Amino acid sequence: MLLRLAPVAIVLLLVGPVLAGIAMAALPAFGYLPALGGETLTLAPWRALFAEPGLARSVLVSFASGLVTTAVALAVVLLFLAASTGSRLDRWIRRLVSPLLSVPHAAAAFGLAFLIAPSGLLARWASPGLTGWTRPPDLQLVNDPLGLALMGGLILKEIPFLLLMSLAALPQLGPERRMMLARSLGYRPTLAWLKGVAPALYPLIRLPVYAVIAYASSVVDMALILGPTLPPTLSVSILGWFQDPDLSRRFMASAGALLQLGVTLAALAVWWGLERLAARLGRRWLEGGGRRRGERALRLAGRSLIGVTTLAALAGLAALALFSVAGFWRFPDALPQGFTLQGWSRALPHLAGPVATTLVVAGAATLLALLLALAALENEQRSGRHPGSAALALLYLPLIVPQIAFLFGLVVLLEALGMRPALGLVIFGHLLFVLPYVFLSLSEAYRRLDPRWARLALTLGASPARVFWRVRLPLLLAPLLTAMAVGLAISIGQYLPTQLLGAGRHPTVTTEAVALAAGGNRRLIGVWALLQASLPLLGFLVAVGLPRLLWTNRRDMRGTP
Amino acid sequence: MPKPHFAIPWLALLAAAPLHAASPDADWQSILDEARGQTVYWHAWGGDSRTNDYIAWVGRRVDERFDIDLEHVKLDDTSNAVSRVLAEKQAGNHDDGSVDLIWLNGENFAAMRDNDLLYGPFAERLPHFPLTHPEHNPEVVTDFTLPTEGYESPWGKAQITFYYDGDALEAPPRSIEALLDWAREHPGRFTYPRIPDFTGSTFLKQALIALTEDRDALYAPVAESDFAAVTAPLWDYLDALHPHLWRSGRQFPASGPEMRNRLGDGELDLAFTFNPAEPAAAVADLELPPSVRSYVLEGGTLGNVHFVAIPYNSPHQAGAMVVADFLLSVEAQARKQDLEVWGDPTVLDLTRLPAEKRARFDTDDDHPALLPPEALGETLAEPHPSWMTALQDAWRERYVR
Amino acid sequence: MIAHHLELERVRIALGDTPLVELDARIGPGEVLTVMGPSGSGKSTLLAWIAGFLPPAFTVAGRIRLDGHDITGLPAERRGIGLLFQDPMLFPHLSVGGNLRFGLPAAATDREGQVTRALAEIGLGGFAPRDPATLSGGQKARVALMRLLLSSPCAVLLDEPFSGLDAHLRHEMRRLVFDHLRRAGLPSLLVTHDREDAEDAGGRVIELSH
Questions:
Q1: Residues A115-153: pLDDT tens digits?
Q2: Domain with A134 in it
Q3: For chain A, which chains pass the contact test of at least 3 CB pairs under 8 Å?
Q4: Is the pair C, B in contact (3+ CB pairs within 8 Å)?
Q5: Full domain range(s) for residue B322
Q6: Which pTM was predicted?
Q7: Cβ(A226)–Cβ(A142) below 8 Å
């Protein structure tokens, strides 16, 4: 039966390309690539790689941004959850999680750059009154050599991700009972959460945390916008070498891809070591019995940090909107001399193609991912067999192996197989990253659905297929649409697979926006980045709105399932 | 790694070219017929919105007139397209390549010729090509000292032009040497695009021409001279200049357009472009203040012609030729030169154009930010393309830490 | 009216080496067999096995015969055994009428008439287009019963169907359910820990202990 093949298909689909890609990066890294005349094994690509100027710094920045980003984002999320009291502000932030998560990395990066650049929005508003600047200060705030701006941008984007993952995992832990217990023992609320809930939560979000480390240490599009330039991060350097007209550089690029894999694995290993260390130190803290010390500071940090990052993300989007309609805007005026729709009217004729490609690719990849995920989950329900944690780890494989490390190998492989860049390949490339997210976001709801619904329907004589279509699917409509919105958002944000597998022939709003980064025209970038951010938002609006519309007359379907 | 090299008998091909001229109309008609319905993937640098808009207009026109579907594949670096064609050749894809037309010049043209990646000669077959009158304008058949031999067709002209905010600056530096003194007095207000950007690389060549003691060496392959000795004055100059640049020379803008936008933001006082009309166009686009003025350095600045070429394995060579020919039409060239559109100078020989056609190039607006053609003065010829790559590599060795 | 009977032959259910249930019983038409026992005694396991939902971790010996046919190996939807849960479990995405129609076999004729008559019978005439969420607990329980009967089962399993109801409703619902089951001539197996359920059912009582 087809259903039974679904889990196998998913594993093959996710694991196959990753392993094949790494293998096809590994061979050229040691000089073997007959198509380019490399017939013998040699260490020459590695020697060329290590002779590259600035390599050490590239590696260090990539490594550091993996660890720093994750540590800061995780700390902000845990502190927020600890300090969260269910106030109106807390509820607002929780509600903003999904929309903020749906903002593509590139758009968020542009937003941040527009905000903090020396001639950005903040400097304009603070000058000359607060700063005394009449000219933009000559400071390296964006593209700084240490990659701080890059890390800042990544932190803004990874906080919503980790927060959403935490919120999804929390109900399993019964946090209310734990809190009651801890508070009845005299622990103040923030400390009660940090000591009573956080240690149990962390194991549940460990894989997402690892995915953040891997992503932050190897990201390309954000690094192109916010990252250092002389030299750029390792991933951006690899991209450059791979596209160099001197094809012999591909050997070095392959070695670089393996090095990137090593850097990411090293960051993961160091994090793993830090986990052990934190567990040991944390135990002493947990068992130390402190009930109040630090409560006030922790609570303040929990509230303010998430407030600042959320505000920065929103202000970045506002900056995109403002710059997209700004006329000439002399520094340090608070507002442009005039407003113009020129950016929009110029971009409008060019929007149709990329928007259509974006939607076709995102729609197809998401639909395929939904079909596969539903088939696998339905098979699981019917057979009664649940996959183990190993299967879950496999699902995370494309999220933990750096994109750049295996996509290049994949391109080399496809070229060797004589496959031409085509829209189908782009969709396939997106599917690799959409499927894990769709599966993860759907499986939770699918497995939590009361099994008695299906049993009842079966005893009423409905066939398993009828149960699926008439009972399970309608009951799961809301999570299904959410998974779809997540899938669309992930696909819309993809840069590297679109660029590499489509050979630039299939521009999407994301590749167009990133391509504009080099020109630095804020009006135009604002237009494209806003567009890029609004497309996934539409998906989430549908996901929230459609169930409400369909179930206006079904009260029990309107609550969160 | 040595690449296989098949020497094409250029002269023989060139000699064959006049055969097509036997019945030019019939020949061209068959190309037009073949081009009908083709999709042409034009790989062209996509970093400037005005250029992109112009290319989109070309797409609409060739669709209307010749039923050709033109797709602009926007590149952040032209070398990406070169790399793709080369990869296809290595993989044995000799007749179904993904690139049909490339916008290029200089070292990318040289690289494609070296690897026999170009289709041609085709330029002489284009009905509009004679309007460039190559016999009087050798620059339209010469690319960075190399003869084009019909393997690329001229499209537009470029010349390094400096511009500055007249409100912030009264007397801009008029030479490469004066630039250093000026930068010392105005720290952080000048920069150049990050190498290997072509505008940035051109600044290196401009400085090298001004500073080197052996200018002649630049017009022969770099391997024929002592690179270190010829370029030593350039590195001394840059070492002295960098501490006074924007971001203290530790960071550079990604491209010419980014440099322009930083000037608009007030971060820079002085910038330069390869397109003499760009400052005026940017004022019109509200990207630069109306106080912007432009000028060229004393002793002249580097200028060149940019071209389009067709890869040897393009499956739509007829369509690509029709597009290349349309680009040379009076309609397309006049629109390209229009300040409102792009402002890129024409490659047609206006002096030999009939008056009514010449009128289409007339501009009645003498924009304060636009230099009159005669003020552009002396054009310095581009060095041999091998210097570009050599300078880029040396720069990276020196300044990427 | 067809007279159905349900036979449970030398049933032994065990989880690993721990035996849970041993039972040998025949339930005649209209008869209610009550199985009682504290939680963890294996009542629900027994029901799950008869209905066809037992997880593979359990080992089972014995057969289930419905009207003489061995249905032990059949999938749940083809056994002809209906189920009434503790909660009414009306599908929240369907209307009241939609829930009843879901119960009707695909081949049933006069579907609308059957639904209308069923609603009238339980005093809910005209409720067909209503959202089930707007019904009271007792009303929901009655709709659930009608949905079960419309699916024309050959035997019925009752999984503590009255424990979710208020005390004053419970007696009334028991009478309604048992009357209907008896009238339909359905053999029924009731699982409960409430002695009053057993008394109202009026049939044999088997006590499971563990």
A1: 999 989 999 998 888 888 888 888 888 989 999 999 999
A2: 45-340
A3: B, C
A4: no
A5: 10-157+305-365
A6: 0.84
A7: yes
